[in-house]
Structures are given as C-alpha cells and as structure tokens.
Amino acid sequence: MSGDGTRSMTFQAQPPDTFAALQEAARRTGMRYLSGDPATGIAMFSAGFTVMSFGEKVTTRVREVAPGTVEVTFSSDPKFGIVGTWGRKGTSLDRLATALSQILPPAP
User: 4, 53, 72, 98: which one has the fewest Cβ atoms less than 10 Å from its Cβ?
Assistant: First the structure.
C-alpha cells in the first residue's frame, strides 16, 4: 500500500464480474457493503469496529484498462483509526485487496 492510503491492483476480469467479486471479498473479510454503482465502478465498504480500526471505510474504483483487464483502486478513510505504534492505516484496505486477489486472477 502506498503511504497515502491508496492501493491499485490489475486483474483479468470484466467490470461487472469485478464488482460482484468485491462484494464477495467484503463478505469474506467481514466488511459491510455500504453502497455502490456498477455503472460507475465505485463501491464503498465499512470495516466497522475492529481491534485495528473504528469506522474505517474503504472506497473502490473499478475501471477497464484493456479488453478483459480491470484496474481496481482501493482508498481508505479511517474515522478513528489506530495509527502509529498501535497499528497502521489501511488494514481493512489490505484485507479487502488480499481477499479480492484470491477471487480474481491477476493481469499478466
């Protein structure tokens, strides 16, 4: 993850399949789907309260970069996240990205 709370990954998939895979990844990580629009490729998820965060939100943006290839950008917005010596910003973002990479094949 970059230092600014964002991360991008590229997969071999179509945008609608990626949107569905994001919802499954959220389910697997215990995150909650808040809202989204498959037409724009934007979805929001919440981690709620965990040991590492309180109310952290993760926004995803899906865009097709080539036929059959999508780029997913994750950005995190911790509301009262525990950062520094107690943890690090973006743990929910990392969990969601890792879960998605277990569902969709990476782009070559």
Answer: 4
Burial level of 70, CB count in 10 A (0-12/13-18/19+)? buried
How do residues 7-59 score in pLDDT, each as one tens digit? Answer: 999 999 999 999 999 999 999 999 999 999 999 999 999 986 544 445 688 99
Report the distance separating Cα 70 and Cα 58, nearest Å.
18
Neighbouring residues of 107: CB distance < 8 A, sequence distance ≥ 6: 10, 11, 12, 69
Secondary structure letter of residue 79 according to DSSP: S
Residue in 89, 24, 83, 14 with CA at minimum distance from that of residue 58: 89
Could you give the dihedral angle defined by the CA atoms of residues 6, 10, 16 and 21, in that order, rounded to the nearest 10 degrees?
Answer: -70
Q: What is the pLDDT of residues 85-108, one digit of tens each?
A: 334 444 889 999 999 999 999 998
Angle between helical axes of 15-29 and 91-103 (0-180°, round to 10) = 120
